[in-house]
Specification:
- With 236 residues, this protein is α/β, with parallel strands linked by helices.
- Helix content is 37%, strand content 21%.
- The chain has a seven-stranded mixed β-sheet with strand order 3-2-1-4-5-7-6, sandwiched between helices.
- Helix 5 packs across helix 8.
- The chain is globular and about 50 Å long.
Length: 236
Amino acid sequence: MPLSLDRQNDYRALYARMHPGWLPATDQYEALIRAHLRPGMRVLDVGCGRGGVLEQLGAAVDRPFGLDPDWRSLAEHRLPDLPRAAGTSEAIPLPAESVDLVLSSWVLEHLPDPARTFAEVARVLRPGGAFVFITPGAWSPAAVLNRALHPLQARLVPLLYGRAETDAFPVTYRANTRRQIEALARAAGLATLDFRAIEDPTYFAFHPLIFRLNAALARITPRRMAEHLVGVYRKS
């Protein structure tokens, strides 16, 4: 039986009960966005997919814009009235200093040239604007295994997690450690506001006993091996 997202979320809820104060990375990501969101802001979701965070934020975003290189995802977006365009984060089709907030959910791990993306994000941000992202940590057990089994990814992802093969995009992990991200941001002229490494023991929870073991290990594993990285960077 595949480890579905619903089952993972059930385990995350259990882990939160076991460790009061812990929140899933996606919840922390959304909270950081809301903390920097103001009425009238123009918000760009890079790699918007079929819905994602703009769908969750809903009416809180007055002026959203979605960007994704996958035409099928854009056509199937669950917000049919969302202004959106096909394109990559390496060449954002917007004028300089035209965006207040840039969002990036599960994109950095796929970038072949992350320096170009960080430079583009800095270009389109207005002074004082912020870049908020969530991405896997490069040294988490899941990421390490993903790299090791990369040739089999297209088969294993649907088998183990029940996710469509078309959603299993190639990964590079060139912007997935704190050191890498800090260097890329600094070179682009972005300053750190917040950076979080967040453990998540649910990725191999194919059995309750495996989850319990993972949960115990998560509390003693070095932060550089955390499953998720969430951060906020600001343009001066």
